[in-house]
Amino acid sequence: GEPRRFDPKFRGPIHSRHCTDVICCVIFIVVILGYIALGVVAWVHGDPRKVIYPTDSYGQFCGQKETLNENKTILFYFNILKCASPVVLINLQCPTTQLCVSKCPDRFATYIDVQASYRYRPDQWNYFKQFCKPGFNNPRKSVAQVLRDEDCPSMIIPSRPFLKRCFPDFSTKNGVLTVANQTTFKDGRGKTRNVTDLREAANGINSVLEARSFGMKIFEDYAISWYWILIGLFIAMMLSLLFLVLLRFTAGVLFWIFIFGVIGIIGYGIWHCYWEYDHLKGIPGSDLTVYDIGFQTDFKVYLQLRQTWLAFMIILCGVEVIIILMLIFLRNRIRIAIALLKEGSRAIGYIMSTLFYPIVTFILIAICISYWAVTAVFLATSGEPVYKVMANQTLCKYANLTCDPETFNTTNVTKLCPGAQCTFAFYGGESLYHKYIFIFQLANAFVFLWLVNFAIALGQCTLAGAFASYYWAYRKPADIPLWPLFSSFGRAIRYHTGSLAFGALILAIVQLIRVILEYLDHKLKGTQNSFTRFLLCCLKCCFWCLEKFLKFINRNAYIMIAIYGKNFCTSAKEAFFLLMRNVVRVAVLDKVTDFLLFLGKILVAGGVGVLAFFFFTQRIPLFAQEVPTLNYYWVPLLTVIIGSYLVAHGFFSVYAMCVDTLFLCFCEDLERNDGSTAKPYFMSASLHRILGKKKLSPKKA
C-alpha cells in the first residue's frame, strides 16, 4: 500500500515480461478442451429433432426417416379435451394417447357411429381407422374395450395442423365460437358437448396465430427497411465518433452548463416554494400542520398547507448548499476529472483503431453464446425414451411408474388397473451419462460464463495496454509505439492468459451462484415462507453487490497487468490500494465520466431516433419518395434507436476504459515522480497546470 519509488528506467508498459498465473492458464486450457469434449459427447448422444418434431406415445418422432412415421409428420391427440391449452401440448405431455398421422381429420365422427355403420358404409371406417393405433382393424371389438384400451379415439373433430400438431379448426361466426360451422359435437361417450369446452385451447391458439401473423408483418418490415436501418446505425457511429473527438473541447463546457443548470433549477424551486408559502398567508386552513390533517390519499390537500411549502423550501435549500459546497471543495478534483476526459479524447484521436476493438469482443462472445446454446440443446435431447404407466383410474398405484412397452401387457398392471397404458413420458435414461446430464448442463453454463468474462477481460487488458502506452510516452505522439493496440493484444494473450482467466473465474463463480439463487427463487415461488423469501432476497442482494465490486476490482487489476505485467492478485491489490489513496478523485471522475457518457448516448440515440422518426413518417420532403411502405413504422424506428444506443455504448465503453487507464497512470505518475528534472511527470501540460505545484517543470504536451 506504500507509494512507489522512482524507477528511472520505467517508460510505461513493461516489455520484458514473463508469463503470469501459469497454473490458472493450464487449468483454463484443460477446461476449454474438456468443454470441447463435452460438446462432442453431447453431439454424439443428442438429437435436436426431439425438440423440433413432436413425439408420439411410443417415443418416436413424427416424420422420422426410415420408420413407419416417415410420411406421418403431424401429431394427433386422441382426446384433446384432456389438454388444458396449447402451451401444455407443446411443452408437456398431454394425458391422452398421441399418434403420428399424415393429415388431420377434416370431419366430425364418433367411434360409436362409425362402428354401427361399418358394414354398409366401409369408407367411413377406412377413414376413421387411420386415426387409430397402427394395425388396429377390428370394428367388432366392443366400444367399451376399445375406449378402455385407447385403440381408437372416441371422436374426431375437424382440425388443422399448427406447429406440427392437430388443433381444432376454430372460427367465429357472428361472434359465436364454432368448429366447421358447428357449435356442438358428440364426444363419442354418449354426450353432446359445446365447442366452448375447447375455449381455453381456442384462446391460446388464436393468440399464437395472431402472434405469428404479427411476427410475419414485422419480418416483412425488416425485409423492406433493413437498408435504411443500416444507414441509421452508420449515422449513429459517425455521431459517436464526432462526440468523442469533440469531447476534448466540450467536456468542461457540457459539465459546467449542466451543473449551473441544476443550480439554477433548484434556485427557481426555492423561489417558487417561497412564493407559494407567502401566497397562502392568511388563507383559512393553510396554517394547519401535516400532523393535524393526517394521512390523505389526495396529495393536492397537502399543497394547500404553508408547512408543506416550507418543508420543500428547506429541503431544496439544503440540496443547493450541499451542491455549492461540493463544487467549492471539489473544484480542483473536478478540473482534474475534466482534464482526464479531454486527455482520453486526445488518446483516442491518436489510437483510433481502439474504437473498433469492441467488434472483436462481440464476435468472441457471439461464438461463446452459440456454442453454449447448441451444447445445451444437444444435452437436453440426449436421453433415451422413458415410458410411464398412464392410468384412467386415479387410484391406480402403478400410475406414473416407469414401464417397458414391450413387456407391459404381460404384467399385472393391466389386470389391476384396467385401461392402463405404457406411454412415452420424456427423454432421460439410467446410464452414468444420463444421470449426470443436469451436472453437465451446470458445467456448460459455468464454462460459458467463464469464457464470456475472459473475452471481456481480454478486451479490457488490450485497451488498457494501448492507452497506457500513450500516457507513458514522454513526447506525445512521437514516443507512442507503432501498432499499440496490436502489441497490447499480443502481450495479453502471450503472457497474461492465466491472470485474465483467474479474474474471469472468480467472477464466473459469483455469477453462477446468482443464477442458481434466481433458479431457486423461481422454483420456490408460492411454496416458500416469508423467512425463506427474506433469506433468498438477502443472498441475491449480497451476491449482486459482490459481483459489482469484483467487476470494479477486476477492471483496474487488468489495467495494472497491462502496465506492469504482474500476476492477478498482486495487480488487484496494488490497484485497490492506489484507488483507496485517491478515493475522492475516483468518485468524482467516475460520476463526471458517467454523466458525460450518458449524455452522449442520449444525444446519439435521441438525435438518430428523431431523424429516423421524421424519415419513416415521411416528414422529410427530400426523401418522401424513398420511404418504404411499412406495416408498422415503429419497427425500424425502435431498431434504429436501440441499435444507435448500443453502437454509442460500444464506442463509449472504449472511452470509459481509456479514462480509467489514464487515471490509474496519472495516480502512478504522481506517486513515482515529483516533476523535477530528475523525476519528470509524464502527464500532459493541462494536468500540470491544474496541479499547480512549484516543482513542476515545463514540458511538451
From TrEMBL:
Keywords: Antiport, Cell membrane, Glycoprotein, Membrane, Transmembrane, Transmembrane helix, Transport. The chain crosses the membrane at residues 21-44, 226-246, 253-271, 309-330, 350-374, 447-474, 495-517, 595-616, 637-657. This is Choline transporter-like protein. Belongs to the CTL (choline transporter-like) family. It comes from Grallaria varia. Its main location: membrane. It is found in: Cell membrane. GO terms for cellular component: plasma membrane.
